[in-house]
Amino acid sequence: MNIQKNVALVAHDNRKNDLVEWVEWNDEILAGHNLICTGTTGMILQKAFDKKFENGEIKMTPKIKRLKSGPLGGDQQLGSMIVDGQIDCMIFFWDPMQPHPHDVDVKALLRIAVLYNLPIACNRSTADFMISSPLMQGEYTPTIKDYSSYINRYE
After folding, report:
1. Distance CA 152, CA 18 (A)
2. Which of 84, 89, 101, 147 gets the highest tally of CB atoms within 10 A of its CB?
3. Buried b (16+ CB within 10 A) or exposed e, 10-47
4. pLDDT digits over 77-104, tens only?
5. What is the pLDDT of residue 57?
6. Which residue in 75, 88, 95, 128 is the catalytic one?
7. 88 has catalytic annotation
């Protein structure tokens, strides 16, 4: 991971306001990183940044790369980016109290993030610890398990 991280930001509908509040609280830190969001979350965050910029509360709005909405393939797009090494960490405020029609997609996204040893924060406390870590501001090389025995199991 480089000093400038590729940070994935995702939130279920009932947690989008929580994520916006968290991002606004940490806007100066996040402004130095690349933000990748699923569709609706990215749209809401961009509006919040634009409003703070217009009000003179921040000096610049970070560029947000928006993927598809989660249920429309955004979760899979994000998973693909993780596999390709294009995501360094993920903040995913998910709602454990609501059923989600794309629950299998969410489970697959979390599985692939764990498989590739990606730092994941699923609530505000963990997100606070992650973003305030000295590792967030420097280079870091995560250890990824060697899966060659699995890949070569039929040879």
Report:
1. 44
2. 89
3. bbbeebbebbbebbbeebeebeebbbbbbbbbbebbbe
4. 999 999 999 999 999 998 888 777 777 8
5. 81
6. 75
7. no
